[in-house]
Structures are given as structure tokens and as C-alpha cells.
Amino acid sequence: MRSGNEDRVKRNCTGYAQVNWNLVEIETKVQDLYQYAKRTLKIEPFQYIKEELLKSGVLERPIVTVEVTYVSVLDRFNEFIEKRKSTDAKASIKIYTTTYIHLCKFIGTKYKLFNFEDINSAFQDKYISYLLKDAQLTNTTVGKHLMIFKPFLHWATDRGYNTKTDYQKLFKRTEFETDATTFALTWEELNCIEKLELSENQRLDRVRDLFLISYYTGMRFSDVSTLQPHNIQGSVIRFTIIKTKESISIPIIPPFTNTFK
Questions:
Q1: What is the rounded distance in angstroms from the CA atom of residue 166 to the CA atom of residue 117?
Q2: What distance in Å separates the CA atoms of residue 116 and residue 73, rounded to the nearest whole number?
Q3: In this structure, how many other beta carbons lie within 10 angstroms of the beta carbon of residue 137?
Q4: I need a surface site. Which of 46, 144, 173, 238 has the fewest CB within 10 A?
Q5: What residues contact 37, with CB distance under 8 A and at least 6 apart?
Q6: Mean residue pLDDT across the chain
Q7: Contact 66, 18 (CB under 8 A)
Q8: Cα–Cα distance measured from residue 50 to residue 39, given in angstroms and rounded to the nearest whole number
Q9: For 138-151, what is each residue's pLDDT tens digit?
Q10: pTM of the complete model
């Protein structure tokens, strides 16, 4: 006789615990009847088990006492995004959402057959191929989307939705990125940008100022673009990093003092 977890309702179904408990009760009863028929009565067990199960009434009890609702990996991913909205930056939520959209398109109408157990090396290879060929994303962008899987799967594992840990060896962003070409401005080039006359174009004048602030402070554009007058306190810039929520202070050094006037 065969038994095991492969005959159980998966964790991604609501009410799986109660259903599985009922299945265990029936399985235990069948095993007891099987052993009694073979060892004590020395008869073929099938018909005997069938008759005794009917007599015991175990099959007449409601096996499913709660409604079983299927919850797909995509449902869990959406739940993950909703939970992160209260803690993560908007830019991160945007990446999560884009990853979710790509995953929906990749899985298509087969989403009900897609379980956490299917997230393996074969899935990774096919998904990468889809992102590169069908979605036509760059290697760097593919790496960003792959990187989202690990925090999602860690989250799903912590909540008992996922029980497989093979994913820890997968979704390594650096394997799919290429080295970007880095350009460094010379002091002469930087000086030319600073002195460029843009008074007749306020938009470009502001862009130039934001660029110079970012250049001299090392601040991300997402932080520089949200600076307000109250962030400038004397000779120091005080602000909270959007991405990490960390509060920091940066001294205003002479090269870009005039930018804040």
C-alpha cells in the first residue's frame, strides 16, 4: 500500500490541514483493516476493506469540512507585493510589480498548475530565455528581475507557503549581467558643464544643478530630485535615503556651495 506527501493537498490550498487530517484518518483505518484481513482472517483484503469501511461509516463523514480554495504562486507573489508596500520604496515596488507582470505573461493560462515545487533550475533557464528573447530585456534588467525571486521565496518559506529550499542556489543576478562601460569626467569637462549658460532654459538649468549635486555628493538621483529647502541645514545636507530609509548627513563642500544659492 502506498502513502506519502504526494497524496496530500498542497499548502497552497486553503483548508489543506483539515483535509489532510481526514485523509490520514481514512488511510489509518484502511491499513488496519488490510493487516487484519491478511494476517488474522487470511483472506483477500479488498472486498473486506470495502465492506468494513461502509460499516464503520468513515466514508460517510464529510471529508472536506472547509472550502478548498486554490492559491497560486502568482497569488502569493501579489500578496508579497502588497505586504512590501508598507516598508519598501516606491521604486522597489515598481520593480516587484514589473517582475510580477513578466511572470504572469510567462506562465500564461497554466498558472493553476504552477507550484513552488516548479521553481527550479529548469524554470530559471526557461524564464531567462523568455526575458531575453520574448520580452527583449537587457542582461542587466534580467538580473534585476531574477534578484526579486529570492526575497519573495524567503518570504513564502517563512510563512509556510513554500517548503523547498533549492531556490537558494538559483537566481544569482551577477551571472546574467555584463560589465557596464564607465565614463569619468575630467575636471575640464566638469568645469565646462558648471559654466554652461542655461539661464534661458530653466529645465536644463535644473537638470545641470541636480547632476552637479549628485556628482559632488554621491547621492542617487532619486534622492537628489526630492531635496527640499529644509534638507539644507547650514553647511550640511540632511535627508533620508529613499531606497534604504537610512538618515544621513553630507557636508556641503566648496565646489558645489554656489549650487544651493
A1: 9
A2: 6
A3: 19
A4: 46
A5: 43, 44, 45, 48, 49
A6: 79
A7: yes
A8: 17
A9: 888 888 888 888 88
A10: 0.49
